[in-house]
Specification:
Helix content is 8%, strand content 35%. By secondary structure, it is mainly beta.
Length: 368
């Protein structure tokens, strides 16, 4: 099997510092509202046949009243759910913060409480104390040190309101379940306690031609190396008990945020970029400060046959990509995978609020 990679990533973008709408986008907005009717200015009506609920999440709050410990990356902003309910010409708009335990604790205290963040604080004096870092360390073992699931949403379970399990997800292994009708937070969904689950993936994918979901987790037993478990969630499976498609042992613990699937295969790129977990305590539990490029390392590619569980491994040139864009089989025993390469440090620097709110007159940006 040969893998071809088509790279489409570099765009010239112009950012103008006087863009008021852009700055308004980053203002805290934890306001809760429900079922506000929306009216279209355009005379074209909403199609009568359109029905259902469209829900998205994203950052909405970076501070809690105190001037201390204000989050410095919009990617760290606490998640808010927004929904659009369609019923013919009627469209209802709702919004509500995702109420994770760390979010509720921070609201109650009026200041961000000890937890893992992506970027550090602007003032070194605001960094976590030794005791606070010990609390984060304990919560890390309990899988509760990071619960700000703001990147994406997914459904497992059956495809209906009563039996569907709606999750706010991130690369941490514990999603937050919510009620799609009123956007209330139901609670955290944990994997089985053993083997230990180290991480998940924010970008779940629907298996082609089915209602199954494909994802992966990194796990560690009492002995042996960290391994990857490729999982299939059928409609009858709960979060803790998916079907295991395959397992494999990667050479390095790469930073991975997405993967690809085709009709028959799942494709994983293990880049020469790792999150150096050994330095987590000393760097204050700020994940993006741990991103490390491994010199003289290739990108390892693992192709998993979703039908048989067979794993094929090979190498390609060093690169990094936060997101896969597309993948397909061309009928000639080839897989074509489109990825979006980017400098790995963009996760920390390009998306820092100070840089986003104060762009140069014209900047050349690289998408992630």
């Amino acid at each position: 099997m040969r893998l071809q990679i088509f790279v489409h990533c570099l765009f010239l973008t112009q950012s103008f510092s006087e863009n008021v709408g852009w700055k308004k986008y980053f203002v805290d907005n934890p306001t809760e509202f429900h079922d506000i009717p929306l009216a279209w200015e355009d005379p074209t009506p909403v199609p009568d046949w359109l029905s259902g609920t469209y829900v998205r999440n994203g950052p909405a709050q970076i501070s809690f009243g105190s001037e201390r410990r204000v989050l410095t990356s919009w990617l760290d902003g606490f998640a808010k759910l927004h929904s659009f309910k369609f019923s013919g010409s009627q469209v209802l708009f709702s919004g509500k913060m995702l109420e994770s335990p760390n979010y509720l604790a921070s609201v109650a205290a009026g200041e961000l409480q000890p937890m893992v963040t992506l970027n550090g604080f602007s003032n070194p004096e605001e960094e976590w104390t030794w005791w606070e870092k010990m609390k984060i360390l304990v919560n890390s073992l309990l899988l509760t040190a990071f619960d700000n699931n703001n990147p994406a949403l997914w459904r497992i379970g059956k495809d209906n309101l009563d039996e569907g399990v709606y999750l706010a997800v991130t690369d941490a292994p514990v999603p937050l379940r919510f009620n799609i009708s009123d956007l209330s937070t139901i609670g955290m969904e944990f994997p089985n306690a053993w083997p230990a689950t180290l991480s998940g993936c924010a970008h779940w994918i629907r298996e082609v031609g089915t209602d199954n979901s494909i994802n992966f987790q990194r796990k560690k037993g009492l002995t042996g190396p960290v391994y990857v478990e490729v999982q299939r969630y059928r409609p009858e499976d709960d979060y803790a008990n998916p079907q295991v498609v395959a397992t494999f042992v990667p050479k390095k613990l790469s930073s991975i945020h997405s993967f690809s699937i085709t009709e028959n295969y799942a494709v994983f790129f293990f880049y020469p970029v790792i999150i150096d977990g050994k330095r987590m305590f000393e760097t204050g539990f700020h994940v993006f400060d741990l991103l490390t490029w491994l010199e003289n390392e290739q990108t390892d590619v693992f192709v998993v046959n979703l039908k048989t569980g067979n794993v094929t491994q090979f190498e390609t040139k060093p690169t990094y990509s936060a997101h896969h864009a597309n993948a397909y089989e061309n009928g000639e025993n080839e897989l074509i995978v489109d990825i979006s390469p980017t400098p790995y440090i963009n996760l920390r620097d390009y998306l820092a609020l100070e840089n986003q709110l104060n762009p140069p007159e014209v900047s050349t940006g690289v998408f992630t």
